[in-house]
Amino acid sequence: MPIDVVAAAIVEDRRLLLVSKRQAPEIFYLPGGKREAGEDDLACLHRELDEELGVAAVDAVPWCDVVAPAALEPGQQLRMRVFLARLEGRPSPAGELARLHWWQRTDSLRLAPAIEHHVIPALTAAGLIG
């Protein structure tokens, strides 16, 4: 059974907002997380962005669904619903997050498989990042 999560692709100035968790600060992901009982995708997204970054999602729209190997759970698959959104507020890592980074193509960060092999190619193909 795949790990089911909701995440936000936040692009500003052709850079993508990525975060890392305290349990694995060297691996970067999209901000987001797992739904709580009875929570729909947008409610989850809003809660996660508030808890992890202290910001609100604005104009969040479903963009793509990704299935990829989970970065921290060997042998597990990740199923991620990705929303394109803007942020209200200035993001600052909190909760389980270690860092945030505005990624651009010249950066050499270790990216989660879903980000490296699915999200970044799709954002590039859509002309949102370069």
Automatic annotation (TrEMBL):
Gene Ontology BP terms? DNA repair; DNA replication
SUPFAM superfamilies in alphabetical order: Nudix (SSF55811)
InterPro entries documented for this protein: MutT-like, NUDIX_hydrolase-like_dom_sf, NUDIX_hydrolase_CS, NUDIX_hydrolase_dom
- PROSITE patterns according to UniProt: NUDIX (PS51462), NUDIX_BOX (PS00893)
Recorded catalytic activity of this chain's protein: 8-oxo-dGTP + H2O = 8-oxo-dGMP + diphosphate + H(+)
Provide a Gene Ontology MF annotation, just one.
8-oxo-GDP phosphatase activity
Q: Top enzyme class of this protein? A: hydrolase
Cofactor dependence is on: Mg(2+)
Keyword entries, A-Z:
DNA damage, DNA repair, DNA replication, Hydrolase, Magnesium, Metal-binding, Mutator protein
- Matching Pfam families: NUDIX
Stated EC number for the protein is 3.6.1.55
- Family matches, as PANTHER family: 8-OXO-DGTP DIPHOSPHATASE (PTHR47707), NUDIX HYDROLASE FAMILY PROTEIN (PTHR47707:SF1)
Q: Per the similarity annotation, which family is this?
A: Belongs to the Nudix hydrolase family.
Protein name, UniProt field: 8-oxo-dGTP diphosphatase
Q: Which organism is it from?
A: Solirubrobacter ginsenosidimutans
